[in-house]
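Reviewer comment 2.1 asked that we show a complete input and output for one of the modelled complexes. We chose the NAP case, as it is the one discussed in the main text.
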Amino acid sequence: MKKVIVITGGSRGIGAATAYLAAERGYAVCVNYLHNREAAKSVIESIEQLGSKAVAVAADVACETDVINLFNTVDEQLGKVTALVNNAGILEQQMRVENMDAARLHRIFATNIIGGFLCAREAVKRMSTKYGGAGGAIVNVSSGASRLGSPNEYVDYAASKGAIDTMTVGLAKEVAEEGIRVNAVRPGFIDTDIHASGGEPNRIERVKEFVPMKRGGQAIEVAKAILWLLSDEASYTTGSFIDVTGGK
Ligand code: NAP
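Response of the prediction step:
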């Protein structure tokens, strides 16, 4: 079967590392992004140089019409999706809960929760044997924050990942008989741009001493866990989690 993967937020960080690895493993790759067209273009050009097929598609995962257009574009340009990585996610300036306004909470929950649900919905409609699909696999990119709560930094972000953990368990059970597996990875402190969004670009230097392995992780170390969960090696694994956290 032709392998077609959609990676939301595939232009940078964990998503970009997953895109490269998926291409190496024989997937045709859709790199979704929000604004950074240059970064997305550079990922797909590198994949094309490896001889694999890739497209970059701008879409805000929090916007229903954008998500519908994203999956329709993939249908037309790559074929029916067989794997989804719900990776796009955001956090905002570090602060305590009592200082968070509703606008911020809406932004975090819209991208991190509603975005994941909308993309999963479109993927299920295409993968489920109930709708004539050939099955597939979904990996949600949660966070170790869902277990730890991120006090004094971003409890809103941690809570959004808690919702994604619950969605992983529920959706996995809902579609288990329809040829679809749903799992999640929970990365720890990974060296990407996301920490700058919280106002602390060098956060990993500060927090690595709390990690049993005494270092931050690299995006490729998360990508390898994602690709394993998507692969046939994980054929009896659904509703499960891999913590990629250096032991934290
Ligand atoms: P990143 O380097 O900040 O990259 C974020 C990616 O998401 C970019 O490709 C960005 O697109 C895209 N994006 C943001 N909002 C979007 C939206 N509304 N619609 C579509 N795409 C959107 O992030 P990262 O560190 O790789 O994180 C990836 C995932 O891992 C997130 O879900 C994050 O919560 C999770 N995670 C990260 C860490 C960590 O330490 N890095 C730890 C645990 C979990 P543009 O390039 O266009 O901006």
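The chain has a mean pLDDT of 98. We note this here for comparison with the apo prediction described in Section 3.2.
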